């Protein structure tokens, strides 16, 4: 039997990958939301809630493993931050869906579909990147592209706000819709936080 002087807990990689895969599930539910009627949206919200709970479980599993591991594959602080940022993404996506249902929004404003498309692409990139933490290879393009997507999301968000304040909507509807598009923007920001954390880890490990 080989004895390793510095054993490293490798299950973190699988747990980060599972968390990112769950985010892809969440982004697909957001896409479904766009074409759904009111009953369909309520059903999607239930599935999103279940996905968010699964994300919480994945995050807690990472924290538990972190607390019980003597040696970790990279800095404990970075493991904690990465897990927390991934969890934030699911929280924001679930909140957005829940708000659409709770506010009984009949029609989402033009541009929300673009927001969701950006989130779906960022989710795919994040899920593809997590397994590469094992080797720290092929990650540069990931964080560059996610940062580009976040800039695109900012532009979409600003245009949406301009649209909401153009006088077409009454004041109450503006408040409802603004909260939804703001939460979707926070999800885009959270993807960037994940990418920035991965970049920090890669730099430290290089």
Please explain how this structure is put together.
Belongs to the UPF0111 family. InterPro entries: PhoU-like_sf (IPR038078), Put_Phosphate_transp_reg (IPR018445), UPF0111_domain (IPR052912). By secondary structure, this protein is mainly alpha-helical. It contains six helices and no strands. Helix 3 runs antiparallel to helix 6 and helix 4 runs antiparallel to helix 5. The longest helix has 35 residues. It is globular and about 55 Å long. The N terminus is likely disordered.
List the helices and strands and how they pair.
Layout lengths: L10 H24 L3 H31 L7 H27 L9 H18 L10 H25 L6 H35 L1
Helix pairs in contact: 1-2, 1-3, 1-4, 2-3, 3-6, 4-5, 4-6, 5-6
InterPro entries: PhoU-like_sf (IPR038078), Put_Phosphate_transp_reg (IPR018445), UPF0111_domain (IPR052912)
Pfam families: PhoU_div (PF01865)
Family: Belongs to the UPF0111 family.
Enumerate the spans where pLDDT stays under 50 for 5 or more consecutive residues.
Answer: 1-7
Multimeric state of these chains?
single chain
Count helical runs: 6
Q: How helical, in percent, are the residues?
A: over 70%
Taking the alpha carbons of the first and last residues, their distance comes to: 30 Å
Extended strand count? 0
* SSE pattern, N- to C-terminal: HHHHHH
Proportion of residues in β-strands: under 5%
What is the 3D form? globular
- Sheet/helix structural class: mainly alpha
What gyration radius follows from the Cα positions, in whole Å? 19 Å
Integer average pLDDT: 93
> Main beta sheet: strand number and arrangement?
none
Pfam family, one: PhoU_div
InterPro entries: PhoU-like_sf, Put_Phosphate_transp_reg, UPF0111_domain
Protein name: Phosphate transport regulator
Organism: Streptomyces flaveus
């Amino acid at each position: 039997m080989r004895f390793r002087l510095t054993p490293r807990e490798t299950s973190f990689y699988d747990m980060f990958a599972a968390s990112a895969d769950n985010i892809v599930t969440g982004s697909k539910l957001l896409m479904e939301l766009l074409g759904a009627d009111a009953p369909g949206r309520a059903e999607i919200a239930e599935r999103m809630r279940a996905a968010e709970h699964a994300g919480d479980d994945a995050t807690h599993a990472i924290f538990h493993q972190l607390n019980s591991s003597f040696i970790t594959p990279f800095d404990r602080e970075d493991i904690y931050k990465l897990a927390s940022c991934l969890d934030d993404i699911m929280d924001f996506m679930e909140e957005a869906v829940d708000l659409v249902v709770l506010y009984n929004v009949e029609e989402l404003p033009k541009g929300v579909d673009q927001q969701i498309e950006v989130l779906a692409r960022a989710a795919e990139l994040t899920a593809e990147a997590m397994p590469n933490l094992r080797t720290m290879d092929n990650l540069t393009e990931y964080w560059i592209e996610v940062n580009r997507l976040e800039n695109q999301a900012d532009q979409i968000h600003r245009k949406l706000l301009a649209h909401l304040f153009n006088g077409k909507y009454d004041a109450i509807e503006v408040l409802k819709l603004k909260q939804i598009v703001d939460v979707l923007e926070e999800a885009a920001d959270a993807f960037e936080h994940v990418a920035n954390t991965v970049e920090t880890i890669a730099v430290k490990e290089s």
